[in-house]
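Open question from group meeting: does this chain pack into something compact, or does most of it stay loose? Before anyone orders reagents, we agreed to write out a predicted structure and look at it together. Recording both the input and the output here so the notebook holds the full record.
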Amino acid sequence: MVSQNKKEPDAKIAKTEEETSDKEEEEKSAKPPAGSSKSGWKNWKKTKESESGGEESKITYCHWLLKSEPESRLEKGVDVKFSVDDLKAQPNQTTCWDGVRNYQARNFLRAMKIGQQAFFYHSNCKEPGIVAIVKIVKEAYPDHTQFDQKDPHYDSTSRKENPKWSMVDVQFVRMTKRFIPLSEIKAHHLAHKADGGPLKDMMLFTRQRLSIQPLTQEQFDFVLSLEEEKPH
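Structure tokens returned:
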């Protein structure tokens, strides 16, 4: 677990969609793969209903999607690259998720609970998508980078007695069995908008610019189930 007072390397977690354009990702995902995910969703739903006795799950956010940039990009002279390999190289494969400067994303950070799992999503790169699963190992506490004048995420308006920005600690759990690209997730999102599947309101498409996004249990389970399928 990362100490609150420990200084992290300058090349830290990238806040992606909050301050950078998501045009590249939109262009990459504009044309989903051929075919529909309707049958896949219906078969998955039947399986889940069978497991739960047919009861509809209550809509709550208990999982997350965290975006980070795996490719080098300078922000105020500092490389903000941080890939899943960088996470795995950290002591105990754990790091603080700092640098978030969007209020809604910050509030999502503050809502996270120890033990909850999240998808590690490579963003703002040649092929964006989900690469791994991480878990929350320390709940929200003040983000030290807001007070560091040398950090690209320094905020001169934040005060130590009343910090504006928070971070959590996350730990690597495992790689997904295969890379799950944005284009594939979007194909299911579009199909679910028509047939009422769990991805119809997924924030990856309704609030693209947020680097911290909540997921319902159904959304998390469905996306995770894609790792068992052959790539499109």
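Observations to bring back to the group:
The longest strand covers residues 166-181.
The radius of gyration is 18 Å.
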